[in-house]
Records
---
Amino acid sequence: MVATLHIDGAAYSVKEGQNLLQACLSLGFNLPYFCWHPAMHSVGACRQCAVKQFKDEKDTRGKIIMSCMTPATEGMRISIEDPEARAFRAGVIEALMVNHPHDCPVCDEGGECHLQDMTVMTGHVCRRARVRKRTHRNQDMGPFVNHEMNRCIACYRCVRYYRELAGGRDLDVFGWHHHVYFGRQVDGPLESEFSGNLVEVCPTGVFTDKTLKGHYARKWDLQTAPSVCVHCSLGCNTIPGERYGELRRVRNRFNEEVNGYFLCDRGRYGYEYENSDLRLRHPLRLGAEGPRPIPSAEAVSYVAGLLRNGGRVLGIGSPRASLEGNFALRALVGAGRFFIGWPERERALVTTALRLLREGAIRTPCLREVREADAALALGEDVSNTAPMLAFALRQCAMQRKIKVAAAFGIAPWDSDAVRLVGQDEKSPIFIATPCGTRLDDIATRLWRAAPEEIARLGFAVAKALDPDAPEVPDLSDEAKSSARDIAAALREAERPVVVSGTGAGSPAVLEAAGAVAAALRRLGRNVQLSLVLPECNSAGAALLGGGSLAGALSEVRKGQVDTLIILENDLYRRLNAEAADALLAGVKHLMVLDHLANATTARAEVALPCATFAESEGTLVSQEGRAQRFFAVHPARGEVRESWRWLREIGMAAGQSEMAAWQTTDDLIQTLSQEPGLSGVKEAAPGREFRAAGQKIPRQPHRYSGRTAMGADVSVHEPPPPEDRDSPLAFSMEGYQGQPPAALVPRYWAPGWNSDHALNKFQGEVGGAVRGGPAGVRLIEPAADAPARYAAEIPPPFQPAEGQWLVVALHHVFGSEELSAHTPGVAQLAPRPYLGLSPEDAQRCGVGEGDPVELAVGSSVQQLPARIIPGLPRGLLGLPAGLAGVKVVELPAGGRVRSVTGGPP
Amino acid sequence: MFSLFKGLWIVLRHAFVKRVTVEYPEKKPVLPPRCRGRIILSRDPDGGERCVACHLCSAVCPVACIALQAAEDAHGRRYPKFFRINFSRCIFCGLCEEACPTYAIQLTPGVEMGEYKRQHLVYEKEDLLISGVGKYPGYNFYRVAGLQIEGKDKGAAENEQPPVDVRDLMP
Amino acid sequence: MSDTARSLVTIFAVLLGALTLAGGFIWVERRLLALFQERWGPNRLGPLGLFQGVADMIKIFMKEDWVPPFADKPVFVLAPMLIMVTTLASLAIIAFAPGLVVADLNIGVLFFLAMSSLGVYSVALAGWASNSKYALLGGMRAVAQMLSYEVFMGLSLMGVVMMAGSFRLTDIVAAQKSLWFCIPQLPGLAVFFIAGVAETHRSPLDLPEAENELVAGYHTEYSGMKFALFLLGEYVGMTVVSAMIVTLFFGGWAGPLLPPVVWFLVKTLFLMCLFIWLRASFPRPRYDQLMLFGWKVLLPVSLLNLAVTGAVLLVRGA
């Protein structure tokens, strides 16, 4: 419904019922605000967005209203520029500034501060108050968020975000009147894995980025480029910033379809591995005295020599490397001799997930669709740890019910206080079935803790309860039957249910069960969607590219078919247990590894080549949604570091593969790559290198970028020309098109008068909606329209805890389980210490207390770990943290044995 | 017509008055204190570095000849880890001094900075930092800022109340 | 000594003298301007800064011989040569002293007028060949200005020619034995002097190179030696005009005690200093004012002068 709104005498068309603030901002007016946020909507607390409303044309007096709390109606007359309204707004700012400290020069928010912007916008320049400023003591909030409470203007955004959106419990507001205090009860790290968003949510410098503080640079000094997070499979959009050749921080890049306004802490703070001392900077050749640096040309010609002399070569790619890197390796070694570097079980899981999405009739949702779903079933996947932003989306999904309830009372969805009041404890039905407790449990309608097979069986039972045609689950317990009936009843009620599962439980049956539930709902005519979490940032891309697993590579090696092994951005010692990895590497004569960081695999490499990280190269990642997204180099790679595909191309050319010579730029490679089946959309992920905005490239540096003629002057006073970027339409310069580029190329948010990230308002068609200039990224997977919803035939038998035999399952951790982010000091600090999880009953039975050392044997791998008692873990299950440094790699779930080191055998 | 000749006469007369040129190397002119010459970094009256590494001077510099990196000591006081001015680019416009919120960066009347090598015109913090307050005595940014640093607790700055006790129930 | 050798020696003496004078005069001009403006001027290099000109020359020789890529190269190179050739050629007819003249032509005055007209080509071609808007505008102005002032320049001299009864400069000098023509031909002198300033486009009538509106006019794109030729051409032109005024109105080499050449040089230098004095004193007129002044004031004055001279001569002769 369109309404005509008269603003200062001119007529505009706006969405009827939308709040005036959002409408005015969408129309491009500069109206100050604090407590309102596009993702948190209106509470009308700060009184900053006052405008004047008139009854009709004749009314000249009007009345002051809060625009964020007033819906737009047909024929409404308001004035933004009215002197009284202006004075009101200036008065509010002046009052807020009474206690704001004289800190801007030493405040990390300075230069991108919403409070600064709004103060300038209202015209307040001089503090007339003669009272003394109130002060507060700060708290230590852990490694990510810095707290400076003096600066607070009490807008309440932080607690609204933290408690309502992110589901955190440990940040709250204390005290009263102008003494209100936003903090924790006691000092300590913030518990929520979404705490980093406080930095962006806070309109001033109360919460600032602590990792940035360690190597501070102002927003105007950061070289930035659009990028994609590499720390999980969701592919959240980010804007990393660089200064002096070092990555300084990561900010959110708004993508309405994916992450929206927020990021998880792993994505926001995991970037510091890029600056790690472990980075490889030169090609290394392993000699008798260990690795020594060699010139690039020597490294290339040496490896090319191995390939040229009839050497039988094998390539192992990586699900954390870009499509381009993997494709280049496949082209170098040949499709038959290319293996993705994942264990066989992971390959089976990812291909199962992909088969469900590509061949089934059910669409995989983007995160926005998950946020808007009205019921959810999470089967087997602890999304709060493996894909945190999906958990965040599920939290929004839980709130949908409140909005629905409020709508019945005629309350607009943006009236967030009223919605919360009317909604009370209402929440959308969300069912979570996992082996262990998750941080989403508080929003769950029902929880189910069981072994992966039991979860799969529950899923099949739900399918059966929904659709009588579904296969019968044999030997189902009464409890499971009733649970399945309840879940089915709730899902049947929903209009847009979403089924969430993933590879985290390590069981293909769980995935099949999730597919079965979705298929059953589909048969009932529900608009159901299926979201499957994958292990790594490019797992989907690697699977689309095809190629065997490490098991295939190992068998080739065992056959003695391999002289040279090339490993791309993959630490095999994280994939296989040490013996298996040793066996694989020992079986080849020559080993070449390309990676960013030194690790156990590069340590054994005859030649190790330093390759560029996500921040130094351009590439494409395919998220679990099947969305191909391009990340762009934030800064040029230093020294001899270069993109992995460029290394491979040079080696290929030196070895006589002339077709690789055509790959001059990333675009050329993408052109070849997009001829592969299923990957034709890749080249649409972002505009190619020829793209120009108004005839110009898009500058990575803001127009205020400083120190160009001094930053390198300590080395030489003669300034080198800025590095040229031949791969993309972006430039390593401050010259170029300063307007708004297409969404996939937006390097930063800035608009005149809007220095903070709220400048995003000016980039969106409608504030809170999609960024102008087309979608960022392209979906490669869409369901076949007429594909039938089918059920898997095989239903696993029930899990029986056996005496002396345990089922060891992987427990994922948002901090620590992912390889690269673990190199960030803050992430390492918050990562758990190695442990073995037991249920309280089992622990009691075995006489094991918290922290007692226990010995775990899985197959031939034996390790000693301290015990941790995990309430809610089903009996007979052991939880082993996945991917954690200090825990031996075993393929999970698997049967295992434990022995208490202090006590006797349990 | 007559005015033309009058003009000629006036000009001719000027040929016989005292010269205004100061013959520089032999005779040094006295430069006013606000003359914009060599840039220095000053210290506050307590002897601490005034520069808080806010990056405003580098942002305002029209030739982008100032580069610095902020750092923080163990007690929260900000300072520049390095501070570099490339004087071969500097145009001595004085905008950095104008932008400086702490009176740290100041232009002084020193003008004799010529070098035979351009590289020698790159000044680091050691070359810039002086031991006095320069043109602005008495000002210390941290006495007015709310930030807590060594020797100044929360609420101890000018015009500040002692920190709020959140657990206090008094109105 | 044969006639050829004698004229060769004369040519070299005149060339050397005129070029040295012109070159040295750059220093004189800078010192004089400084004097008028209460400064010192170049006083560092050599005694009184006399070697400043040498230093400038060394600098200008070292400059890259550069032609802008957008210029019309042959014409661009030709233009500065032309101005040197025409101004130096004018020097040939000037009688510095009895017997010290390269070519004592019987149409000496006409030759001078012809050569100064040819000089227009240099400026016009420079403006055109530079292929830039400022240069072109400067060239256009120069052509219009020089062609206009050429007319009065010629006419203003005719009074002198009528009184001397010859175009030969030695004859004209001889005719001033009793009375310098500056007395009876005062209006002619005034017109010729103003036209001379305009012809050499010296300040205040330097509109073709008005730096505040046309950067440097027709020689905006010139640098190095080619620019130096224009600069030198201007100073040689100034010397020639001054020498002509001395010859035609101030009795040439005539004077008591001192040798004739010295008298001639003293008078010429004085007139050249007058050029500089003018430059130090007057602002530049507007372009239309310059043209109006020429056609509406100078032309009638010179015509009237011509008529009155003719009438007086006629009455006297009768």
---
Amino acid sequence: MSTETLLKTPLHALHLELGARMVPFAGYDMPVQYPLGVMKEHQHTRDQAGLFDVSHMGQIRLTGANAAKALETLVPVDIIDLPVGMQRYAMFTNDQGGILDDLMVANLGNDELFLVVNAACKDQDLAHLHQHIGDQCGIEPLFEERALLALQGPAAVKVLARLAPEVTRMTFMQFTTLRLLGVDCYVSRSGYTGEDGFEISVPAANAESLARSLLAETEVQAIGLGARDSLRLEAGLCLYGHDMNTDTTPIEASLLWAISKARRADGARAGGFPGADKIFTQQQTGVSRKRVGLLPQERTPVREGAEIVDADGTVIGSVCSGGFGPSLGGPLAMGYLDSAFIALDTEVSALVRGKKVPLRVSKMPFVPQRYYRG
Amino acid sequence: MSELRFTEDHEWLRAEADGSVTVGITAFAQNALGDVVFVQLPELQAYAKGAEASTVESVKAASGVYMPLDGEVLEVNEKLDGSPELVNEDPMGEGWFFRFKPADAAAVAKLLDQDAYDRLIKANAEA
């Protein structure tokens, strides 16, 4: 794709001004790193606070008395009993139980739900919503209308409290409407780094002034997609299109925890989402492969696509995400492995440039999550 | 000859007094790669020109470091095992990769000189 056809977020000019190195990502011209560099940006986010432009992600509002009930027909998650002012992780499944996208769902109250979906999937997600629940609730894409900023790291709460002191009272996954610099914003205490922090949905026209104001705080640095990836990988968080896709079910992706109790086979509102039968069967009888954490036992990073073999050299899986963890101080990966090999501490190998790199099946997150639960 | 020579793959070469040649990657290359986290150094053996003798892994991706000329690797910079960041911090000095004995000593002088390499960088920047 040539640069002329790439979309720009409302912060594009600011990224250039800050000296970002821009790359195409999901159809957008996005900052992969700033002059600080991926390693220092990563460490800064863990030590202080990082500001991420995630405006390429899709924001969608669902409205109407039936919105929650309707959305439940597309996700294996309890939306009906999602309290006002709370957010929950969800995924759209297909009839085979595969994952079409993962998303965050917040209950705004007044029969309104607020969704954040992946950039690369947002058009298909919108079509999916229209096709299946378009006659049951209002569906309002906010793709152009709103920007999304993430302020992540241990100092995030202190920084954001200077603009809105009430954020100190929020806990992990709470969601509220707040005025920041005189503008109504949606704010959740969540993120994609494993750190405490916030995601802030702001009208596009006000995004740059809010970003500049946050960046003016001494604790805050602009952080690019490179560090976003290493931060989320250390936190054990999945990246759609890599760690899960339409060919992987939530069970295979080790995301059973995200299937709400109420929607499970023995739950109050069991099933009723695409692929439920397949997913329930897999939950009972097991799966042939599963996503696990993998720690290379040498310094060599093991990258996405690398084959994983057993002691005999038989291929037993592949790496779905891999790289270097600056906080971990070494390489780390996630991969899909034949179920015979998924027990913790099982030793396998990845093939990297024709050589075997030993890997150990490891628990995730690789670096402790530090969410604020009150 | 102690002046530097370069390849189109952004490696630098420095002929040493003993007839060996030291190889590293240029400041331009390390900047393009980003933070280096691992270097797989070559074996002490002969490689043909263009062979992937070494691999440099940055936070972003793996990139090959190619043998600039036919020759035999005599020594590798073992400091890079523990401190791969030397490639970013001092690419033309402490961050050297390996030293080799070229099969044809005269071939080194035929590689790009500083002016030619600077023009290559400029052309890349404008492309």
